Amino acid sequence: MNKKLTPKQREVNRVVDALTQAIGQHKLRPGTRLIEAQIVESLQANRNHVQAALQRMSSQGIVTIEPNYGAIVARPTAKQAQEIFFARNMVECAIISCITPEKMAHFAEEIEQQQYNEHNSLLSQNHRDIVHQLGEFHALMSRIAGNDVLRDILNNLMVMSSLIMMLYQKDISTHCQCDEHRDILTALRSGDCARAQLLMRDHLETLQQQLDFDENSVNSLTVHQALVQL
Fold first, then answer.
1. pLDDT one-digit tens code per residue, 26-49
2. Is the pTM for the entire model greater than 0.85?
3. How far apart, in whole angstroms, are the C-alpha atoms of residue 188 and residue 182?
4. Half-sphere exposure of 227 (CA within 13 A, CB side)
5. Which of 85, 98, 169, 177 lies at a CB distance of 3.0 to 4.6 Å from 145, suitable for a disulfide?
6. What is the three-class DSSP state of 194?
7. Where are the alpha helices (DSSP H) in the chain?
8. Cα–Cα distance between 203 and 91 in angstroms, integer?
9. Domains and CATH numbers, the chain
């Protein structure tokens, strides 16, 4: 049985969700200072709940808390993104090599559910949900592979990768990404590992090319402006 959330936990979750959505929708750009008073006013929230929310987001790598300054939206560098996608390329191709048609058949229902959720996310217009659902495809591939070491490595890479996509992806070409995922699944079902690996490399390269690290490309709003528009 799931533990019932306390009123404080629900409020902290509300603040986290609102801020994360504003960041994911590019209303709050990397480096934007998250002024507590503005968050309190905009969300009609308790200051203690806001502080707890910012601490949680800091532990998730979404914001950075700087001494004597406060919280700001995290800003992973282009170099970090390149390194993460290079590592993902190596790890995910290794994961693909572990997947057989028999394993694909065993996970058929889970694959169908993941694809259903992925397509539904297209209708949500919620950048955070779209990034999450697209990322779930890669997490599922690691579960199907059955290699716990590779799965743990990918899970760690996906935390920062998802943040980078959420912050810097200039075009969410979700239809293209869904098509690429389907092509990879088709190759794996037929046992064509080499083609699946090639498709995965192309897919990750496409994702990296969609990143825009020009912080001047979109004007950042104030925290109040961003939150009242949600």
1. 688 888 999 999 999 999 999 999
2. no
3. 10
4. 22
5. 98
6. helix
7. 7-24, 36-43, 47-59, 78-97, 101-106, 108-121, 127-145, 148-168, 174-189, 193-209, 223-228
8. 14
9. 7-75+215-228 (1.10.10.10), 78-209 (1.20.120.530)
